[in-house]
Design brief:
single chain; globular
Amino acid sequence: MMARQQGYKAIVHYYLAKSCWSIHYNSCCYAAEYVIIEGPWQTEVKPLRSSNPRGWVTARSFQTTYFCSEDAKGPVVMELLNQSQDRVINKLKYDKKQMYFNVTQGDGGLLFTPEGAFIMEPA
């Protein structure tokens, strides 16, 4: 169960109004072009919720790293993103009409980029 693990619950979803990824921890919210989740994650869908988002990814705060597009051009972050891209095995897709994800949980991690969300194999 994620609720019993250390760190805050992190929620990641696509923020359509700003065309970026939104990361929520407790009462804090951040926007990023790139997000990396290392380790276990799962999806949540709340179809009866009155507003968007109705589907998102959850992980623990210590597993989550995020960058703006300017930071992603730096050599250290670029290397981290390249290593993550090398581990990609599939795309995570969300169907807004049917309100479901093609994969509901994983152990390797996720990479969120401007091109979409990608499932990573364990490191």
